[in-house]
């Protein structure tokens, strides 16, 4: 198994790529999502041993028929993207498996989660087609910040508990936004909670965990479901700790860069 942990100040570990013995790596405190609901959620999968068996590594969001948004810390090597995924261990008939052609990591990503910019855009070799099981995500307004306790939803195939249980089926959980003025307090995440991040959770019950990285924080704002965050980090050790919410890259702060990269559909 490949374990990748990134620590900063001993506290954070990336909800990061690593494999258990099973062919996958949940949202903690969540439940099975209804099939065909969170249609912009994708599974980022890697063939670690070049033997044709793929492992779920991270989540991501479909933002265009050719482009996927994920976390920079998820970027390790060659991937395939699976859209329309629901049960990782079964062929549902709704999936599309697409090769990644090009990856743009944010130019200010340093590998240090505390410095932010944990975002990357992947260009697909072929466009996703609308088979009724996929949808391009709507994004928030520029610089938009959500109010304290606003309820969003986290989805993913990450760990379900500290003992390392992994789900077959996509998990979902309601998770409350913790506004920056609270999340940046010393007993919360302190100075490593930047305005370019969204904090959510921290109740000790619901959180993201390993394998959820790169996946969406979906919030119903301005009349539509919009992806406001990309799962970035959480506490090392147990994922669902009080006053240590899951931290997301705040999509509304990166729109200009996202559009500049994803508008380049045809390579020069």
From TrEMBL:
<keyword id="KW-1015">Disulfide bond</keyword>
<dbReference type="InterPro" id="IPR043504">
    <property type="entry name" value="Peptidase_S1_PA_chymotrypsin"/>
</dbReference>
<dbReference type="InterPro" id="IPR033116">
    <property type="entry name" value="TRYPSIN_SER"/>
</dbReference>
<keyword id="KW-0378">Hydrolase</keyword>
<dbReference type="GO" id="GO:0005615">
    <property type="term" value="C:extracellular space"/>
</dbReference>
<dbReference type="InterPro" id="IPR018114">
    <property type="entry name" value="TRYPSIN_HIS"/>
</dbReference>
<keyword id="KW-0720">Serine protease</keyword>
<feature type="domain" description="Peptidase S1">
    <location>
        <begin position="27"/>
        <end position="263"/>
    </location>
</feature>
<dbReference type="InterPro" id="IPR009003">
    <property type="entry name" value="Peptidase_S1_PA"/>
</dbReference>
<dbReference type="InterPro" id="IPR050850">
    <property type="entry name" value="Peptidase_S1_Elastase_sf"/>
</dbReference>
<protein>
    <submittedName>
        <fullName>Chymotrypsin-like elastase family member 2A</fullName>
    </submittedName>
</protein>
<dbReference type="GO" id="GO:0006508">
    <property type="term" value="P:proteolysis"/>
</dbReference>
<dbReference type="Pfam" id="PF00089">
    <property type="entry name" value="Trypsin"/>
</dbReference>
<dbReference type="GO" id="GO:0004252">
    <property type="term" value="F:serine-type endopeptidase activity"/>
</dbReference>
<keyword id="KW-0732">Signal</keyword>
<keyword id="KW-0645">Protease</keyword>
<dbReference type="InterPro" id="IPR001314">
    <property type="entry name" value="Peptidase_S1A"/>
</dbReference>
<dbReference type="InterPro" id="IPR001254">
    <property type="entry name" value="Trypsin_dom"/>
</dbReference>
